[in-house]
């Protein structure tokens, strides 16, 4: 426990850009570590990038078929035995279910790794929380997340997002946007209290900076209304007014909005446009349709009416933008419900955080080329529900 306290103190007192140096010194002194590296998942979730002063001095490693990638995907420590008898322990760095990267610690041998694995995993969690706080004051960790330069529109969109995954006893969420380094207007947002989860899935309009500006205006209008404590129908109405006041109907935004009761699974829904929902329940995938209402900002002073929806423990909800559902193959065949249902079935054993990236890989195969013509957004929600009598 004294070693954990030493690690926590070192992280808490370190400069924002010196967290890795601080934790490396503690692990060398207290655990006999011979090398310590922090790898951050890139925006496309394809590689794990080393944190170092630019330009990077270490090569990235694959996020899916490497020892570090195995720890990242499983969210469990993975011990890699090295040829010289040493061991490299890969530890997931996550904060409340949001997967940031991996802490790799080289130790004298497997026995040491197994003995200290639990404490080192806790230290990796402490490091993750400090990284999130430090990102307010340094670009170091954000720079380590990108293997290519982001377009300005993509920079604006990533800064708008709440994270890429999160987990609570009642649910698990995962989301991904493509093309990760050149996204335009698609977006997702979520926020939870002790009793409720609000989730927005947005299908943007236009391209480049104009699309990013439109989405930023709409999402911040929704957040402003949500933080005032009003219902999702009124949130939609106020965001609609904000968008219309600026664009006068020239630009508008499609959004699918949910307000879940964590205790019961009952939800209020506003369907204002094109994002779609598919549900996996008891092994069967089906599309869930709601009464379509006008997109935000299309006309002045639109009234929105919430609809009722019930989610059951064990349900998996997959939300997609039209850049997924409507994408065409080289022969002109749309991806559509059937292909989506097959993709959802084939990924049913993966955790929610892994599902969006896996489906997007299948979508790339259907499209026949790596670069999409439109944003592609997938959000996966696994609903576990709250046990009877459980506290918030």
From TrEMBL:
Keywords: Hydrolase. It is an enzyme of class 3 (hydrolase). Pfam families: SpoIIE. Residues 170-383 form the PPM-type phosphatase domain. InterPro entries: Bact_Sigma-Reg (IPR052016), PPM-type-like_dom_sf (IPR036457), PPM-type_phosphatase-like_dom (IPR001932). Its EC number is 3.1.3.16. It comes from the Bacteria. GO terms for molecular function: protein serine/threonine phosphatase activity. This is PP2C family protein-serine/threonine phosphatase. It comes from Streptomyces roseoviridis.
């Amino acid at each position: 426990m004294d070693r954990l306290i030493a690690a926590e103190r070192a992280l808490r007192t370190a400069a924002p850009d010196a967290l890795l140096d601080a934790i490396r010194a503690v692990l060398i002194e207290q655990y006999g570590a011979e090398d310590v590296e922090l790898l951050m998942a890139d925006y496309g979730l394809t590689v794990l990038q080393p944190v170092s002063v630019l330009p990077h001095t270490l090569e990235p490693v694959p996020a899916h078929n490497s020892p570090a990638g195995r720890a990242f995907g499983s969210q469990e420590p993975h011990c890699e035995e090295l040829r010289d008898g040493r061991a490299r322990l890969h530890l997931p760095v996550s904060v409340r279910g949001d997967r940031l990267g991996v802490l790799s610690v080289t130790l004298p041998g497997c026995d040491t790794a197994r003995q200290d694995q639990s404490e080192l995993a806790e230290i990796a969690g402490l490091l993750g929380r400090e990284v999130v706080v430090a990102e307010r004051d340094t670009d170091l960790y954000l720079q380590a997340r990108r293997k290519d330069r982001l377009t300005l529109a993509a920079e604006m969109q990533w800064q708008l997002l709440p994270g890429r995954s999160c987990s609570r006893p009642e649910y698990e969420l995962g989301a991904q946007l493509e093309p990760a380094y050149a996204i335009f207007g698609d977006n997702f947002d979520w926020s939870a209290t002790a009793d409720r989860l609000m989730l927005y899935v947005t299908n943007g309009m236009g391209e480049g900076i104009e699309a990013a500006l439109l989405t930023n205006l709409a999402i911040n209008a929704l957040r402003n209304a949500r933080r005032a404590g009003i219902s999702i129908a009124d949130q939609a109405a106020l965001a609609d007014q904000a968008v219309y006041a600026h664009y006068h109907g020239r630009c508008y935004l499609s959004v699918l909005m949910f307000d879940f009761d964590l205790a019961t699974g009952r939800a209020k829904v506003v369907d204002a446009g094109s994002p779609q929902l598919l549900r996996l329940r008891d092994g069967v995938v089906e599309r869930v349709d709601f009464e379509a209402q006008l997109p935000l900002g299309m006309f002045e002073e639109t009234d929105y009416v919430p609809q009722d929806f019930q989610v059951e423990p064990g349900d998996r909800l997959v939300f997609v933008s039209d850049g997924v559902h409507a994408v065409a193959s080289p022969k002109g065949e749309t991806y559509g419900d059937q292909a989506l249902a097959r993709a959802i079935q084939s990924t049913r054993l993966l955790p929610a955080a892994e599902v969006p990236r896996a489906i997007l890989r299948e979508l790339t195969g259907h499209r026949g080329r790596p670069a999409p013509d439109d944003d592609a957004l997938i959000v996966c929600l696994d609903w576990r529900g709250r046990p009877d009598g459980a506290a918030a």
